[in-house]
Specification:
- The chain is an alpha+beta fold.
- The protein has one domain (2-82): Glutaredoxin, CATH 3.40.30.10.
- It is built from four helices and four strands, in the order βαβααββα.
- Strands 2-1-3-4 form a four-stranded mixed β-sheet, covered by helices on one side.
- The longest helix is centred in the middle third of the chain and has 13 residues, at 35-47.
């Protein structure tokens, strides 16, 4: 599984911590680490319909999980709950840092 995100994103930090806590293996792709990582994410975001709602809300669309079957999961909390895990939050902030209009994070 791949997790596309950023260490600057509090939702991504919470997603990573939950995956780590429950021993779910993943590769973290930091979209801020290189232009290549950003380009890979933007191509996925700009071509896959699952991101339509995120783009309409002016959200970046991270964290985004991509499983072995290339299925993209944006609602990582519901996915974890569906696996029988309890979601815990530690980093989530409501400062609007994750969207262009500063309304969502």
């Amino acid at each position: 599984m791949k997790l596309f995100g950023s260490d600057l994103c509090p939702w991504c930090l919470d997603c990573k911590e939950n995956l780590d806590k429950y021993g779910i293996p993943y590769t973290f792709v930091d979209i801020n680490a290189s232009m290549r990582n950003l380009a890979i994410f933007l191509k996925m975001r700009d071509t896959h319909p699952i991101f339509t709602h995120a783009k309409a809300a002016h959200d970046i669309g991270i964290p985004a999980l991509v499983d072995e079957d290339r299925k993209i999961i944006l609602n990582w909390e519901d996915w974890l709950r569906g696996q029988g895990f309890q979601v815990q939050y530690r980093h989530v902030k409501s400062d609007g840092s994750c969207s262009v209009d500063e309304k969502n994070c």
